[in-house]
Structure formats: structure tokens, C-alpha cells
Fold this sequence. Notes:
CATH topology: Four Helix Bundle (Hemerythrin (Met), subunit A)
Oligomer: single chain
Low-confidence stretches: none
Mean pLDDT: 85
CATH class: Mainly Alpha
Number of strands: 0
Distance between the termini: 39 Å
Radius of gyration: 20 Å
Amino acid sequence: xxxxxxxxxxxxxxxxxxxxxxxxxxxxxxxxxxxxxxxxxxxxxxxxxxxxxxxxxxxxxxxxxxxxxxxxxxxxxxxxxxxxxxxxxxxxxxxxxxxxxxxxxxxxxxxxxxxxxxxxxxxxxxxxxxxxxxxxxxxxxxxxxxxxxxxxxxxxxxxxxxxxxxxxxxxxxxxxxxxxxxxxxxxxxxxxxxxxxxxxxxxxxxxxxxxxxxxxxxxxxxxxxxxxxxxxxxxxxxxxxxxxxxxx
Length: 248
């Protein structure tokens, strides 16, 4: 099999299981984090953990904002969470898609970079970036092969002027559709809760290793509880009403 076909085949396979890699990396990061905390080899002598935690949280929230912006301005049957097959009715060329070809994966990267930063181990952070690059590069390759075959020159002309992963502001085009808060809630309602839950688990690990107690009276705990309550409220509304259905 030629390398081009092999990369596409690998990308299509990884596309179906692209939610698995973050969970594996997250598990590994917690193990390394526990080691760092137990043997006091983190960055606490340079910056307090609380301040470092806020920096990492800002990185993750920036990734969530990128995803929200992308999904909110995306047409129907694009920028989704489907895993069975590639879907695209049009080539998105406005809004964030005029600056980068794979904004959702940029958002994912930042969302997961936050927990990777929490580990406070430079080698782990480098390993995370490398694994993410190798993994998602194949997925992006497979997606682009699909788009090239379906849209031909329309896709090629857009791809020629739009970078794959590093945002460029010079060709920005205002979105040609309105922002859909309903679609964001429908597709991204779990993002905020997931971020705060993960950060709270890291705080739990740190507190238990250092004090043998659980961190139940911290701002991250209350943020986690509030985000989970919001998630379940939105999930209930989505399941039992059609308030979030708007055709996109």
C-alpha cells in the first residue's frame, strides 16, 4: 500500500476513536502528576501551584472558546462530533475557517494542553505535544483527502491560502451565517463541565498526596459543581424538549 493510502487509512481509523487518545493521555498525566507531587519535583519553587493552575485553566478555556466559536458559526452537517464517517455539506471558508483549516483540533489541543501543563513536567508536555501531532496529523490528512475528492478545486483553492493548524489573521473573512447558541449548547454542553472536573481531580490528587485530605472547600470545587449542575440541566432540557433544535 502506498504511503498516501496508508496514512488515509490510519487517519480514518483514528478518526473513529479520536475521543480515546485524550483519555489515555489524561490517565498518564495523572500518574506523572502524582509522582511529581509526591517527590516535590514540580515548579512550585518558581510559581505557586494556585497561580500555575489558573494559567493552565486559561489555556484550556481558550481551547473551549475556539471550539464554541467554530461550532456556533458552522453550517449544518459540518464541525460535528460524528465518529462513524466524515461529513461535510459545504467547505467552510468564513469566520475561523478563513484563518485555519482545522480549528476544532486547535481547540482540542488547547483544551488538553491545560491538563498537560498541570503535570509540571517538561518532558511530559513535550511528549503530549508530539503524540497529539502524530495522532491528529493522520486524522487531518484523512479529512482533507475526503474534502478534496468531494469538493475538488473549491477545496484546493481554499486550502492553498489557509494554514492547516497555525491560525493566520491576514485572510480573515467575516462569518456569512449568524452565531447559533443553540447549536453550541447542543454540541458543546459537556466541555465546561469536563474542564472543571479534570482540574478538580488534579487538585484532589495534589491535596491527598500532600495532606491526606480531600479538597472540598476550594474555588475549583465549587466551579466543578456549578458546571456539572449546568450540564445536567442542559442535558435534561435537550432530552425532553426541542428548544435547542434550529436546523443546524
